[in-house]
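Recap quiz, item 2
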Amino acid sequence: MSGVRVLVGTRKGAFVLASDARRQDWQVSGPHFAGWEVYHVAGSPADPDRLYASQSSGWFGQVIQRSDDGGRNWEAVGNDFTYAGVPGQHQWYDGTLRPWEFTRVWHLEPSLTDPDTVYAGVQDAALFKTTDGAQTWEEVRGLREHGSGPDWQPGAGGMCLHTILLDPSDENRMIIAISAAGVFRTEDGGANWDPINKGLLSNGIPSPAAEVGHCVHNLAMHPSRPQTIFMQKHWDVMRSDDGGDSWTEISGDLPTDFGFPIAVHSHEPETVYVVPITSDGQHFPPEGKLRVYRSRTGGHEWEPLTAGLPQQHCYVDILRDAMAVDSLDECGIYFGTTGGQVYASADSGDSWTAIVRDLPPVLSVEVQTLP
Amino acid sequence: MIRVVLPAHLCALAKCGKEIQLDAGATQRAVLDELEARYPALRGTLRDPNTGHRRAFVRFFACEEDLSHEPPDAPLPAPVAAGTEPLLVIGAMAGG
């Protein structure tokens, strides 16, 4: 019988939440790597039992863990993320230049076809790749060596490469996002990259329409439409229909267009989900009401989804990698909060239940749809 | 024989007991080299893999002394070299 496995990274470990396709009764395992920050856990689309986790700590640095049995057993694998060549410099908060320095892996994106191939987005922003199941990592150096590198700067959470979109129709095409630099695209497997930020306007940078410097929070793409990309920016919800060459705002009637994650319905490419957050200075939902907003029109027109979500006294945040969709017949949506709740909807967002309520602050949520 | 006591997080990572015994030379560098060779999961957790510098929040204590700022090739205290006292690897008190 088919089912789902929800992979949750938190400030104090990882958790695996599993259910059959009804998504009503959940088995919770964890914490794995107890006490460590787990920024991301991801499963291979080519082998659901192959999982990768980014485990880190301010004391002991970065560890990468791999499971070959769906998360029951884990093995520490390669954690040497050495920048290729001379690391170079980027902007620092005070306007000075600072050398690139590796801190942690924010995001792991396994290949769509090969369980041993994984991309890693790291802080300070760079893209790494393994082709041996994470035993060794090599930087995709063309990105960091793009000429705009000295103009990249850290957001409040650090200068991180946090989003990686792989085009299922073209293995050489990839889109990534960096806070705060913007969106970049390669058409040749990573050798060359172009910034694709035309149409973004960011008032927090000296030139609002600059080629780079934008604080893009998250991207989403439906696999059947790789030319259409949705974006939650620091402020503004955006879309592109030309593969990122140009962007238009679709915030429409959202109560606020600040937020972190964005997701696309697994069967409806024009159905999009965001979680509005009050502002950059108030990282909690407006009016203390936790509302997911859904657009069935590809943006502009949004409806609040509230059934089962707290509608008073709720002051949690939902981080950029903490929302995901499954691909069961009735699309499931999942998101985690900084208050430790993981909410699930088995009906495309119409109603929600908390799978767990008291985990450590949730950093990331991914979901695997199991055969 | 050198005795090394690891913090709980690293014992879990290396899947080893709290105290381990190593056949290693009596310097920090020799001990860490042998420790990483025997437990590859610990590579990069105590010192930067490229520079070899100790991580900022990792400390080395022995015989009621803080050896963290000793040069990596300095001799360890005689009781550590003799195996009568352990080298303590400590996660510094910081954070929550």
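The CA atoms of residues 166 and 204 of chain A lie 29 Å apart.
Chain A has a mean pLDDT of 96.
End of item.
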